[in-house]
Amino acid sequence: MALMIAVVAVSSSAPLIAYAAAPALAIAFWRNALAVGVLAPVALTSRRAGLSGLDRRTAVLCALAGIALAAHFATFVPSAKLTTAAAATAMVCTQPVWAALIAAARRVPVAPATWTGIGLAVAGAVLATGADLTVSGRAVTGDLLAVAGGMAGAVYMTLGERARARTTTTAYTTVCYTVCAVLLGVVCLAGGVPLTGFDRNTWLALGALTAGAQLLGHSLVNYALHRVSATTVSVLLLLEVPGAGLLAWAWLGQVPAARSLPGLALLVVGVAVVVLGAARRPTAP
User: Fold this and answer.
1) Which keywords are on file for this protein (predicted)?
2) Of 39, 120, 249, 280, which residue is most buried, by most CB within 10 angstroms?
């Protein structure tokens, strides 16, 4: 249930980024900074949050996840400004490929069904959006940035899976988002990126990004990592592709091509293969 809500929430990310009249890095900073503003009071005042009980190793994992998340946002958010929302979402959704490769490098068994599902789902994502078509140099740059965002996202998920085994969702997200916001803020200040002076609609979009994609989306994904592997979560998040495409169609007028429909069907089949394959595997003690 948490992952279902998370998918719906994160599907709004790329359309809102494309809509907001603000620099990409400023958008990335504010969605994390505003989320910290909501989480920090809870984490600092609640004993159940577990923030005071963080050991050094867990704190380091949370901080490293924050660095990876900053890299994810610093690449994915600009990509949504350079190419279409659907294309950026499809390219960043190569994340499960990198997550599975990281798992294999760590000698974590990856089921054959997972590899099959990843192949089907990623192929479906590419077919659905036409993300492999290079329509302009600007779009190519956006595609490459989104792929880099997928790589960073896979590292973020893997580190989050390890950290969540040792601490609560609130403690993990508070530390992770704080590190991410600080890094992005430093980059914005060093690069002269304006963080204020936006119009009312942009601030509303930033608020919606924080409440939806950040607090509901990323935080519920972090919650689910306590019980679901990073690879499986990454593949399930591929459902963000049709979600973002539908929102971009209804809101931004980006009408999906008819050729995208078979790709969407293939993506859903790939997700189903991964989920069913994971459900059939015996649970390790």
Assistant:
1) Membrane, Signal, Transmembrane, Transmembrane helix
2) 39
> What residues make up the domain containing 76?
2-280
Do the domain assignments include residue 23?
A: yes
pLDDT value at residue 284: 46
In a domain, 150, yes or no: yes
What does the pLDDT read at residue 109? 80
Query: Three-state SS string across the chain, please?
Result: CHHHHHHHHHCCHHHHHHHCCCCHHHHHHHHHHHHHHHHHHHHHHCCCCCCCCCCHHHHHHHHHHHHHHHHHHHHHHHHHHHCCHHHHHHHHCCHHHHHHHHHHHCCCCCCHHHHHHHHHHHHHHHHHHCCCCCCCHHHHHHHHHHHHHHHHHHHHHHHHHHHHCCCCHHHHHHHHHHHHHHHHHHHHHHCCCCCCCCCHHHHHHHHHHHHHHHHHHHHHHHHHCCCCCHHHHHHHHHHHHHHHHHHHHHHHCCCCCCCHHHHHHHHHHHHHHHHHHHHHCCCCC
Question: What pTM does this model have?
Answer: 0.81
